[in-house]
Specification:
With 211 residues, the protein is an alpha/beta fold. It is built from 7 helices and 4 strands, in the order ααβαβααβαβα. The chain has helices spanning 2-10, 28-44, 63-73, 109-112, 116-121, 149-160, 183-200; strands spanning 57-61, 95-99, 134-140, 165-170. It has a 4-stranded parallel beta sheet, sandwiched between helices. Strand 1, helix 3 (63-73) and strand 2 form a beta-alpha-beta unit. Helix 2 packs across helix 3.
């Protein structure tokens, strides 16, 4: 995602590419802990990097979309924070762009072999409430990796909680439509930048800090 991060920087956003441990080295709860630790670190170091700790956004595709989405809904869930440093600093983000996101793992029975408790615990949809981040969802209708309904389910839950949320449907592509230099990839990045401009840039406050 270095290309996307560079585009964000060109449009006035400070951007960090977050790494996290992968399966099978760890399980999904530890992946969540890693991105929450990274978000806390960014917030704890906001002054050092001249960023605004009250205007954080998260962006990702597929597995990364799941992690961005759970950042957007679960900042109150202390059991997900882990011990990655800066404990007591919030892992909240204020706007999320999630591309082909898994949102409700209880509907992936084969992956969790009936472990509904874990599936629910790692699902962004579990934690949606009125304080959740604003969301822009994008999903290809023909996605065979993550069903399109995963985004519609999350959209419905966000709207029920009166959280500003929208879904852009990609009609002609498959799962990883954001990769490469196709017109669809370019449009999805443009939509993302427009969304972050709307949700994270506040012209009524000081412009000395980058979002």
């Amino acid at each position: 995602f270095a290309r996307q991060a560079a585009a964000f920087a060109e449009n006035g956003f400070a951007a960090a590419c977050v790494g996290y441990r992968l399966r099978p080295e760890v399980d999904i709860p530890q992946c969540i802990e890693d991105v929450k630790a990274a978000t806390r670190w960014m917030r704890a170091n906001a002054a050092k990097y001249n960023t605004d700790p009250d205007r954080f956004g998260a962006y990702g595709g597929s597995a990364g979309a799941h992690l961005a989405a759970i950042l957007g809904t679960s900042f109150k869930a202390k059991q997900l924070e882990g011990k990655g440093g800066n404990e007591g600093v919030s892992s909240r983000v204020h706007a999320v762009v999630a591309l082909a996101t898994p949102s409700d793992f209880t509907r992936f029975d084969r992956a969790f072999q009936g472990d509904k408790d874990t599936a629910k615990r790692i699902s962004p949809i579990t934690y949606v409430d009125a304080d959740s981040a604003q969301f822009l969802l994008m999903h290809a209708r023909g996605d065979r990796t993550v069903p399109y309904t995963q985004s519609t389910l999350l959209l419905e839950e966000l709207q029920a909680a009166k959280v500003p949320a929208a879904l852009t449907t990609i009609e002609t592509q498959s799962h990883a439509f954001w990769n490469g230099t196709s017109k669809t990839a370019a449009k999805s990045l443009a939509y993302t930048i427009a969304f972050f401009n709307k949700t994270l840039k506040n012209t009524t406050t000081s412009t000395d800090k980058r979002c």
